[in-house]
């Protein structure tokens, strides 16, 4: 089988949980919707193109290995926004700040500092998603890529690579970091490559037998309306982490 693998690293990243009020927390790893959203941005898919987003959602399996979970960081965030009024819209942030009825909004936002992941994607049987097209887009993205929030740019090139292997676990093990990746690994004290958990679609073929099942709300219903639903995710823990 053919698998597309790439590196996901950022000095600061955020993988949003369900946002409630002032608390905007982050998962410890990127979810399926975050990875497919990154791919969609690289391909130049507009958020309003529901058909293209559905094709990605239906056409790809995903797995992500946590090479370094990053350090949690809380940002006490303040922002000014105008009061909501019926029929009033703002085209730019500058227009918002020029309004004469600004309110101050407070929030606590969680980040992950120096989080490093290896991602694997491969097509579902019978679905037509060209891995070569995705790999080329990740090398030359149409839209700017960021890790969870627009203020969180990538810290390394994605370095996409197509690997032939029997299973996605074999493909993850076969992935060899480049010089820039090895330098980052050393700076954040990663020993070796496969150092963390591997999370993946619960129905992915070739999965290891010893897994736990988690429920996450990151299956895309509508990018336009920013709606997601629950899905099941399997997590495999390396033997070295269980000792």
Features:
243 residues, alpha+beta, Alpha-Beta Plaits, nine-stranded mixed β-sheet, 7 helices, 23% helix
Structural class: alpha+beta
CATH architecture: 2-Layer Sandwich
The tally of strands reads 9
What count of domains describes the coordinates?
Answer: 1
CATH class: Alpha Beta
**Spatial shape:** globular
CATH T-level topology: Alpha-Beta Plaits
**Mean pLDDT figure:** 87
Low confidence ranges: none
What percentage of amino acids are in beta strands?
A: 35-45%
Taking the alpha carbons of the first and last residues, their distance comes to: 32 Å
Describe the structure.
The protein has 243 residues and is an alpha+beta fold. The protein has a single domain (2-72, 111-242), classed as Alpha-Beta Plaits (2-Layer Sandwich). It has seven helices and nine strands. Helix 1 (32-43) packs across helix 2 (50-59). It is globular and about 60 Å long. It starts with a strand and ends with a helix.
